[in-house]
């Protein structure tokens, strides 16, 4: 199991979700992806994508002007 980070700051919907999808396709089951975003829409968009694709959102934290989403593949 590994943990990776994805910097999607400064990108607007749907690009953060697309970048998340592309990175997760390269990861193994059980890996964790930490996604950094500035688009507040990811609070809803990434969890919706995860539900559809069978991944688990471990946490969503708002820090300053960014959102950090932890996804378990």
Structure, described:
With 73 residues, this protein is α+β, with helices and mostly antiparallel strands. The chain has a single domain, classed as Translation Initiation Factor IF3 (2-Layer Sandwich), CATH 3.30.110. Helices cover 32% and strands 37% of the residues. The protein has two helices and four strands. It has helices at 15-25, 42-53, and strands at 3-8, 32-37, 56-63, 66-72. It has a four-stranded mixed beta sheet, covered by helices on one side. Helix 1 links the parallel strand 1 (3-8) and strand 2. The model has no long low-confidence stretch (mean pLDDT 97).
In short:
With about 70 residues, the protein is an alpha+beta fold. The protein has 2 helices and 4 strands, in the order βαβαββ.
Secondary structure layout plus pairing:
Elements: E1 3-8, H1 15-25, E2 32-37, H2 42-53, E3 56-63, E4 66-72
Parallel strand pairs: 1-2
Antiparallel strand pairs: 2-4, 3-4
Distinctive features:
73 residues; globular; 2 helices
- The Cα radius of gyration reads 11 Å
What is the CATH class name? Alpha Beta
Q: What pattern of helices and strands is seen along the backbone?
A: EHEHEE
CATH superfamily: TusA-like domain
Number of strands: 4
The shape, in one word, is globular
Structural class: alpha+beta
CATH topology: Translation Initiation Factor IF3
